[in-house]
Amino acid sequence: MYRPESELQPRDVRSSACQDHSTLHDRMDVVEKHVEDTVQKLEAELAMLLDAIEAPEWSPLLETVGKPVVDILDGQRLGENGDS
């Protein structure tokens, strides 16, 4: 849609708005890059942890067949038995 010159904002206002818009996009690109990098690092750490857990030296600890199950909380959850 065409606007007459009299309805347009001054050039310096339009330029400032464009610069602000560009700056915002640049900042968003930086944040997106940081998020992607963090996700990649977390995925790598998770893969290492899974590999470590699946290693042969841990397998006896993970086998529960024929062993009693131990409740590590042993009923001591916060707020149980009137305690807080």
Question: Could you please describe the fold and organization of this structure?
Answer:
The chain is mainly α. The chain has a domain of 27 residues. 56% of the residues lie in helices and 0% in strands. It contains 2 helices and no strands. It is elongated, with a radius of gyration of 29 Å. 0% of the residues are buried.
Layout of strands and helices, then pairs:
Blueprint: H1 11-53, H2 59-62
Proportion of helical residues: 55-70%
Instruction: Report the radius of gyration as a whole number of Å.
Output: 29 Å
Run of helices and strands? HH
Given helix and strand content, the structural type is mainly alpha
Coarse shape: elongated
Average pLDDT level:
80
- What fraction strand? under 5%
Count of runs of 4 or more consecutive helical residues:
2
Please give the alpha-carbon distance between the first and last residues.
66 Å
Region (Disordered): 1-21
Pfam family, one: PLAC9
Biased composition (Basic and acidic residues): 1-14
In short:
By secondary structure, the protein is mostly helical. Helix content is 56%, strand content 0%. The mean pLDDT is 80.
What labels describe this entry?
84 residues, mainly alpha, 2 helices, PLAC9
